[in-house]
Structures are given as structure tokens and as C-alpha cells.
Design goal:
The protein is mostly helical. The protein has helices at residues 7-10, 54-60, 64-80, 83-88, 105-128, 131-144, 148-156, 195-202, 205-214, 216-221, 229-237, 243-262, 276-285, 303-309, 322-343, 350-364, 375-386, 395-402, 409-418, 424-441, 456-464, 469-476, 485-515, 524-537, 549-570.
Length: 585
């Protein structure tokens, strides 16, 4: 007991810690009844510790400094022991000679009151001095001002926000329309077979639309012997209306066409199909405006159309977004054209097919349709390609027409990707069109014999040497740079981004040309020459920098293309003697 109350033991750091509860050493309890609540206010009874007088402790200290230290530590000891223990006058310790004090509820409540009081003081301080936070922000702003040395350091290690976009910029093909153009049914050559049909033919446009919405047209014409073609043409025009009407028009047009096919003999199946001019009119109703196709300007409403346009909005509920609604309408048109080409493959001439493919490719590049899938369009283009009768005689005019659909290299790359690599004609068109686009972007479309006796790999080898970034910089940087140094650096950074962007698209097209080829052993040397030129003219000319992440993306593409071509070389054995391309460089 004397050791427990000695000054040495009382002044140890362990004795100043927060009191802890000690587990009793009694045996496992047999009574599982809950303990009384009074145990929280009663501490474990232990024999009181005998305190030595302060005078005896002072006699053991050698000087007065230690007396002051002992007095302060003793006061701290009694403050931490809690209010109840200060009133008792003696600290309570656990049995068994442990140095841990028994915890009590009064000490925990006092600690919680102090924390709540500190939070109240902090709130009062913020209410009385609201300018403290604003002044702190002003100090932070003043500290954010960089010195010239720090600014140079930040500019040196800053990262440019200019990157090579993964999505093409698109073309403005379809102009927005607030209301659909009225589509009138030409019933001058129709003779009604019933009173209901006569009522339908004599009704106004809103009343005829009510026939469509209520399903009366299905009862009139679905099981008829012969469906009138003006009605089919009118339903095809209604595909340009909002989805609520276009969906019903497409369903009825599809059912009438399929029902007519089943009623005809197999050897003489006839189906109404829209002509190229009617397809152009439908696209014009959707908002497409092409100065080459419509030199007189956009479509002008007639007097009858202007009178009826105001009464058309009541038939449509809240429409989806314009891009989604346009995609739905185009999907209906593509699906019906697919049905027409599947049933009657020879219904269109080769000239009409080429014009239709150019129109469809131009529509697919609309800026509002960039992020939407093109499944129906790709299937229709593949079907049109297979229905060309004079193949490959029509390959050259088709590639020449498609290569001028857009002036942006990324749009033309997306146009090449519209054609699936699923058939021999599709691969041939992808390869030849990619080669023509590369030649056009490099200004070699007229000088290079793209349709000569040379193979496409040999032509690509000549174009690949012109795709180095330094050559592209000379072609794109013909304009004079600004006079001020700050504007010159900004213009130089923008020019570098344009060069890498163009080189990225051209290199992707070059990969399409090679992947569309059936590499034979006699082409092993040409492909090896392409690999060497890719590493010599493009990969080694790209200087990566933290300030220009577009260079890193271009170098990654060059590396991936090189690895892919090397893999083709590994699976193709050279023919005859080993080919050495160094003599041709």
C-alpha cells in the first residue's frame, strides 16, 4: 500500500491516462438476470489509500523547484479524477494492485458538457465575427498570386486540354423544324368502295390522321384485294412526322406491303417502292437542305399548307428530343427501303443506287446523330452495295462521289466505317475509298494513279512518306503567324494539334487499307516496306510532351499499327528470295 501511494507511482504517465474498467476475476456467473442500474453510480469498494502528509513529501524533495512541480502535478491528478472523487477526497483504484482507475458516469457527463460548450462558443464566435472567414479567403487569394518564377514552372509542366476527339465533328444536314410539313393524300384517281372509304378520302388532313390513329385504315385496306398506291405513298411521307404518327404510319405501311406480297404469286411478286426523287423529298421534309440538290433554297410552304399547319400540333403528345426523334424517323425509312431491296433487288438502276448511297451517307454524318448507333443504315448500305449490277465498274464513280461528301478528314473516316467489313464488296470499297480519302487530304488525288496497275499497298507506300508531321505542318501552316510572341505560341500549339489530328485520321485510314487486303506471299515485301516507312516517317518524328497529350495518342496509334502489320508479316511467308526494301527508299 505504501508503494501505491508513493510519489513515484503517482507521477507516472500511465496513472494520468483516462480511467479504464477492469474485468473482475470472479468465476463465470450463473445468474443471468440484468444487473441493477445503481451499479453505474457505485464504484467498486476498495480499502482507502493512506495519504502521506504534504509536509513529509516536501522533506523528501531536495529543492523548491521540485516542490512547485509536485504541487502542479498533484492538482492535475485530482482534476482528472472526476467531481465525485474530489468530493470523496480519495481516489478509487481497482483491486489486485492495478494502476487503472475505475471509470464513472460523472466524468463522462462532464466531458460531454465541455464538448458541447466548446461548440457553442465556436458558433457564437462565427456569428459575432462574420468577416473572419471572408478575410481568410482574401488571404488565400493573395497567397494564390504566383511569382514569375513559379508561373514559368507551372507553364512548363502544364498539360494541354487539346486532345484528339474520339467522335467526328459531323455535318449540319438536317435543320430543326418546329412542326412537320403537311402531307396531303392525292385521291384524285381513287374510287371509294364503301361509305367509310368515301368519308376518309373526302376528309381533311386532321380527320384523315384520326382515321390512322383510331385504326380505321387497317379495317379499310389491310385485307383488300388491291391497296391503292397513293395511300402507300402518303403513308411513306408520314414517316417524317413525330414518332406518335410515324410509328402508326410505318406499322400500317409494313402490314399492307407484307399482306400484298402474300396475296401475289411467288413468280411475280410486286411491291410499291419509292423512287430516288421521293426519297429525296422525304429527307427534305425531315429538314435536310443541300444546295446542290435544291439550288432554289429551302422548301416554301403553300397557302394550303400554311392554313393547315396550325392545326397539326394537337395530334402529337410531348415529343422526345429532336435527335432521338430524327433517328426514329430515319430508322423507319431505312427499314422500309431494306424491305424493298430484299423483295425487288432490280427495282433500282445502278445510277439510282449510287445517288441513294451518297444521300444516305451524307445523312448519316448529321451532327445530331453522332452518338447514336447506325445499325439500320449499315445494313441498308451493305444491301445497296450488293445490288449494284455493274461491279466493279461502278466502284470508281462511287468512291469519287463519297470522297467529297465532307471536307473534314474525321467525317470521311467515319463514312468509311459506315460500310461493314463483312462481304468482299464491302472490303474492296473500304480499301479503295480509304486510299482516295488519303490522297485527297494530301493533295495527291489527281497526280497519283489510283486506278492504275499498281497495287493498293504500293500506292499507300508512296502516300505514307507524305504523312510525316513535318510535311503536314508545311501544308497546314501556309498562313502567316501573328506578330506577338504570345499569339505565336498559341497559334503554334493549335497548328501542332491540327497536324496530329490529321495524321491520326490518315494513319487510321492506312490501317483500313492494309486490313482489307488478303496479304499474299508476293505482297510480303510491300508490307515490310510499309512497316519500315511507318517507323521512319511517323513514329520517329513524334516528340512526346506532357503539354501535348495528342502526340502521345498519335504515337500509340503508330505503335499499334506497326505491331499489327508485323503480325501480318509473321503469318505470311515471303515468296522467293528475301526482299530488301532499303534499295527502294
Amino acid at each position: 500500500m505504501s508503494q501505491l501511494c508513493s510519489p513515484t507511482v503517482a507521477l507516472t504517465p500511465k496513472s494520468l491516462k483516462r480511467p479504464k474498467m477492469q474485468m473482475p476475476r470472479d468465476s463465470f456467473p450463473t445468474d443471468w438476470s440484468p444487473p441493477p442500474v445503481e451499479f453505474l453510480n457505485k464504484s467498486k469498494k476498495v480499502p482507502p489509500a493512506r495519504r502521506r502528509p504534504l509536509e513529509d513529501l516536501e522533506m523528501d524533495l531536495p529543492d523548491s523547484d521540485q516542490k512547485v512541480e509536485l504541487a502542479s502535478l498533484e492538482e492535475l491528478f485530482w482534476n482528472m479524477s472526476g467531481p465525485s472523487q474530489q468530493q470523496a477526497g480519495t481516489p478509487e483504484v481497482s483491486s489486485g494492485g492495478s494502476e487503472c482507475y475505475v471509470n464513472n458516469l460523472d466524468y463522462l457527463l462532464q466531458e460531454k458538457r465541455e464538448q458541447a460548450l466548446e461548440q457553442e462558443w465556436e458558433q457564437l464566435l462565427q456569428q459575432e465575427h462574420p468577416r473572419l472567414e471572408s478575410s481568410t479567403r482574401d488571404d488565400d487569394d493573395r497567397e494564390a498570386v504566383l511569382t514569375p518564377e513559379h508561373r514559368m514552372l507551372v507553364e512548363k509542366f502544364s498539360v494541354s486540354l487539346q486532345v484528339i476527339p474520339p467522335v467526328h465533328p459531323g455535318e449540319t444536314v438536317f435543320l430543326p423544324r418546329r412542326h412537320p410539313l403537311p402531307c396531303f393524300l392525292d385521291s384524285s384517281s381513287l374510287r371509294p368502295h364503301s361509305q367509310l372509304e368515301e368519308l376518309f378520302l373526302r376528309s381533311s388532313l386532321p380527320e384523315q390522321l384520326s382515321f390512322l390513329h383510331n385504326g380505321f385504315l387497317s379495317n379499310l385496306y389491310l385485307h383488300a384485294a388491291d391497296c391503292p398506291r397513293p395511300l402507300l405513298r402518303w403513308l411513306f411521307q408520314l414517316l417524317t412526322w413525330p414518332p406518335e404518327t410515324s410509328s402508326r404510319a410505318f406499322g400500317l405501311l409494313w402490314d399492307l406491303s407484307i399482306d400484298g406480297l402474300f396475296r401475289q404469286p411467288d413468280e411475280d411478286m410486286r411491291l410499291w417502292y419509292p423512287s430516288l426523287q421521293e426519297v429525296k423529298e422525304v429527307f427534305r421534309c425531315l429538314g435536310a437542305y443541300n444546295p446542290a440538290l435544291y439550288p432554289h433554297g429551302p422548301f416554301q410552304h403553300s397557302s394550303r399548307a400554311l392554313e393547315s399547319e396550325a392545326s397539326l400540333g394537337c395530334w402529337e403528345p410531348q415529343d422526345p428530343p429532336q435527335e432521338v426523334a430524327l433517328d426514329i424517323k430515319l430508322s423507319y425509312i431505312y427499314r422500309f427501303l431494306i424491305l424493298c431491296f430484299l423483295v425487288q433487288p432490280t427495282s433500282y438502276t445502278d445510277a439510282s443506287i449510287l445517288g441513294l448511297m451518297e444521300l444516305l451517307c451524307r445523312a448519316g454524318l448529321d451532327v445530331g446523330l453522332r452518338l447514336l448507333p447506325k445499325t439500320d443504315l449499315q445494313q441498308l448500305l451493305l444491301l445497296l452495295l450488293e445490288n449494284i449490277q455493274e461491279w466493279p465498274g461502278k466502284l470508281q464513280p462511287l468512291c469519287c462521289a463519297l470522297s467529297w461528301v465532307s471536307d473534314h478528314h474525321h467525317n470521311l473516316l467515319t463514312l468509311v466505317q459506315f460500310f461493314l467489313d463483312a462481304t468482299p464488296r464491302g472490303r474492296q470499297l473500304r480499301s479503295q475509298l480509304s486510299l482516295m480519302v488519303i490522297a485527297r487530304m494530301l493533295g495527291q488525288q489527281e497526280s497519283l494513279p489510283l486506278w492504275g496497275e499498281k497495287t493498293q499497298l504500293a500506292l499507300l507506300s508512296q502516300l505514307l512518306s507524305l504523312m510525316r508531321p513535318s510535311s503536314l505542318r508545311q501544308c497546314l501552316g501556309s498562313e502567316t503567324l501573328p506578330s506577338s510572341p504570345g499569339q505565336q505560341s498559341k497559334a503554334s500549339a493549335e497548328l501542332d494539334h491540327k497536324v496530329c489530328y490529321l495524321c491520326h485520321s490518315l494513319l487510321t485510314l492506312a490501317g483500313v487499307v492494309v486490313s482489307s487486303q488478303d496479304i499474299t506471299p508476293d505482297q510480303w515485301g510491300e508490307l515490310q516496306l510499309l512497316c519500315m516507312q511507318l517507323d521512319r516517317h511517323i513514329s520517329t518524328h513524334i516528340r512526346e510532351s506532357p503539354q501535348a497529350m495528342h502526340r502521345t495518342k498519335l504515337k500509340d496509334l503508330a505503335t499499334q499499327t506497326y505491331i499489327r502489320w508485323q503480325d501480318l508479316l509473321a503469318h505470311c511467308q515471303p515468296q522467293g528470295q528475301y526482299f530488301s526494301p532499303w534499295k527502294d527508299i
